């Protein structure tokens, strides 16, 4: 059977990208497209082992596990053991699901041939059919994620602690599933907090900026200062933000401390029940 190199690489790049994207969505982990593409490209290069002599099932299994771990690290980096194990397990699960669906497609359409060597499968089916099948798999995974999110309840109240310059504030925070605010420079998640909550933490010259009564940011505060673009029902705008030393999210006997995070300050009152909004991205290590 003839295996076309360009088709093998292109289709594996496409499939691996959507496997990694599905893994990202399921775990609520924001990842830059370039990292997903790099991970997918590495996976596509691994598919070239189909041209090597058969090296046996035992070696092949170990090789695939190690390479899959490398793909996960390239795409998502390593931040904690708990996060790494969860993401790796999800990637394996999504890959197995996709493999099962593709086998079903192969049996249904009966293409002329299929090549398997060193754990790499090459289906002799049209690229269009493979692309459509991959998009359908991604759609099914997205629907499952949406359904499970609704079943588990959506918005939830958490305990939030913010530490900045030896000062600490605590409040109730709402998990807002619609909050996708991110820092454009560092890709860090953003917590939206009422000005009244964090006012006393801020240096006196900076308070006027966050209160909206001054435009010039003090020089000694400029390093951690950001403007976060947002879009809401009432329109679009920019929220001033600063980088705290840490944020701690708690619920019951579970908690997570996050350092790579920004606090965007809202002049408007959020609610009588909570003083801040957190996103799902903040709970990836929860």
How are the SSEs placed, and which strands pair?
Layout: H1 5-26, H2 33-46, H3 57-76, H4 81-109, E1 114-117, E2 120-123, H5 127-151, E3 157-164, E4 167-175, E5 190-194, H6 195-198, H7 204-211, E6 225-232, E7 235-242, E8 246-251, E9 254-258, E10 262-266, E11 276-278
Parallel strand pairs: 4-11, 5-10
Antiparallel strand pairs: 1-2, 3-4, 3-8, 5-11, 6-7, 7-10, 8-9
Written description of the protein model:
The N and C termini lie far apart (49 Å). The mean pLDDT is 81. The chain has 286 residues and is an alpha+beta fold. It folds into two domains: 5-151; 157-283, Cathepsin D, subunit A, domain 1. Helix 1 crosses helix 2 and helix 2 packs antiparallel against helix 3. It has seven helices and eleven strands. It is elongated. The longest helix has 29 residues, at 81-109. Helices cover 43% and strands 23% of the residues. It has helices at 5-26, 33-46, 57-76, 81-109, 127-151, 195-198, 204-211; strands at residues 114-117, 120-123, 157-164, 167-175, 190-194, 225-232, 235-242, 246-251, 254-258, 262-266, 276-278. The strands form two sheets. Strands 6-7-10-5-11-4-3-8-9 form a nine-stranded mixed beta sheet. It has a two-stranded antiparallel sheet with strand order 1-2.
């Amino acid at each position: 059977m003839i295996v076309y190199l360009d088709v093998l690489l292109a289709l594996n790049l496409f499939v691996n990208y959507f496997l990694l994207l599905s893994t990202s969505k399921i775990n609520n982990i924001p990842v830059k497209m370039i990292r997903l593409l790099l991970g997918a490209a590495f996976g596509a290069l691994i598919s070239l082992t189909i041209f090597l002599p058969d090296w046996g099932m035992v070696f092949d299994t170990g090789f695939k596990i190690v390479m899959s771990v490398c793909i996960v690290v390239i795409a998502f980096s390593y931040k904690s053991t708990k996060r790494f194990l969860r993401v790796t397990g999800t990637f394996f699960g999504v890959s197995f699901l996709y493999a099962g669906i593709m086998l079903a497609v192969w049996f249904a359409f009966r293409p002329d041939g299929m090549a398997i060597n060193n754990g790499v499968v090459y289906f002799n089916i049209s690229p269009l059919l493979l692309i459509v099948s991959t998009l359908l798999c991604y759609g099914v995974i997205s629907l499952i994620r949406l359904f499970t999110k609704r079943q588990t309840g959506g918005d939830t109240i958490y305990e939030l602690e913010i530490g900045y310059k030896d000062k600490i504030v605590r409040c109730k925070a709402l998990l807002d599933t619609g909050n996708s605010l991110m820092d454009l420079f560092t890709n860090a998640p953003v917590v939206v907090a009422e000005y009244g909550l964090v006012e006393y933490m801020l240096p006196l010259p900076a308070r006027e900026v966050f209160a909206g009564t001054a435009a010039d940011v003090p020089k000694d505060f400029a390093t951690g200062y950001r403007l976060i673009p947002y879009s809401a029902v009432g329109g679009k705008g920019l929220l001033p933000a600063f980088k705290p030393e840490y944020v701690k999210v708690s619920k019951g006997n579970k908690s997570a401390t996050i350092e790579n995070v920004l606090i965007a300050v809202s002049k408007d009152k959020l609610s009588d029940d909570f003083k801040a909004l957190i996103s799902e991205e903040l709970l990836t290590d929860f």
